[in-house]
Amino acid sequence: MIGVLAVAVIPAISSMDEAKKSAAAEEVEVPVTAGAAAMPGGTEVVLLATFVYHTWSWFNIMPKTMPILFVGGKRLQPGAITAAGLAAAAVACLAVLLVVRGLSA
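User: That's the sequence. What structure does it adopt?
Assistant: Structure tokens below.
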């Protein structure tokens, strides 16, 4: 999921950086939508919704497909497994966001 998102977002950021650099050399103002050629309008929203749904459904089904886990002698509840997976996905997405923002700065 994260790899696909990175592949979709990084080219758009790169094309925006290139447009800004060439415009700075020519002293021309670049519109905010300079990266639109890489990702047509609305695609980002569709991708985000798809990835969020896939992440939720993946971790929602995970407790049903994995072996039963015991922590401290008690069975780990399916909701805890799902919550842990979603939290891990959120942390990973935040890390990717920070890396991408660092690359575009």
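The longest helix spans residues 78-104.
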